[in-house]
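USER:
I wish I could look at a protein chain and see how it folds. I am handing you a single protein, as its sequence and its fold in token form. As I understand it, each token names a local backbone shape. I hope you can help me see how the letters and the tokens relate. The protein I mean follows directly.
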Amino acid sequence: MHCPRITLRQDGPEFSRIVAGMWRLADWNLPLAERIRFIEQCIALGVTTFDHADIYGNYQCQQLFGEALAQAPSLKRQIQLVSKCGIKLVSPHRPEHRIKHYDTSAAHIIASTERTLTELQVDTLDLLLIHRPDPLMDYDEMAGAFERLRADGKVKHFGVSNFTPAQFEALDSRIALATNQLEFSPLHLAPLTDGQFDTLQRHQVAPMIWSALGGGLLFTRTDSANPTHDVLLELAAELGTTPATLVYAWIMQLPCQALPLTGSGRIDVVRDAVAATALQLERQHWYRILSAASGHEVA
């Protein structure tokens, strides 16, 4: 099984349909050789897009990934890199930060991007996202920062993460956004009803999906907080697949053409996600999961 590719928006970036999320890279404790091997294994499966953020791993994940690219520079030509900025954590790695806050000023966007390029040891990002909406964000200033980064050859495309439909459209009216990265899973159904997916489908923009497996809780919690646990196990057995593959397929069946992120350093988890690209669920199967997740049948 080889992962297909998808264009996020007309004239936007072309990514692998499954994106390897690097949020927990520091927690995986992979020696350098194993980090390189993991990237190579992802590429062999067709998973060539890797998702980062400046703050991941308490500001350490991008540097760990960059060390792998520096050791095996041929990988740079085979992958697409996504990163995010806009959150400032209180951290010994950023002693100037006194309180956790957002910063979407042009100065911070540009400085964070330049630091990300240094940490990843590359010249250009394929996609830069604003990590969270900021009550103080000035859409014109943000768009201006994006335009400068593009003109300088440092970022090819831009997008947002966790933005409301109105916030997405406000920035999109100034500069075309390639995606909105959103939380969605059977444990978090809000984008189905809050206008997120409808807005993106209207603009023909494919969302990226974080926490697609609910941070692993879909398969570890069996209480009332996870009503889909038994249904996923039963349906996976019926269809001859794994529960994880089933969930990824359920997400990708959305007509907005969602791109799920994986979050594990285990290549078998990435392989399960890639297998989902070939699994088409019957509507009754799709709604069986939705009904379990929402706790009721459709009206």
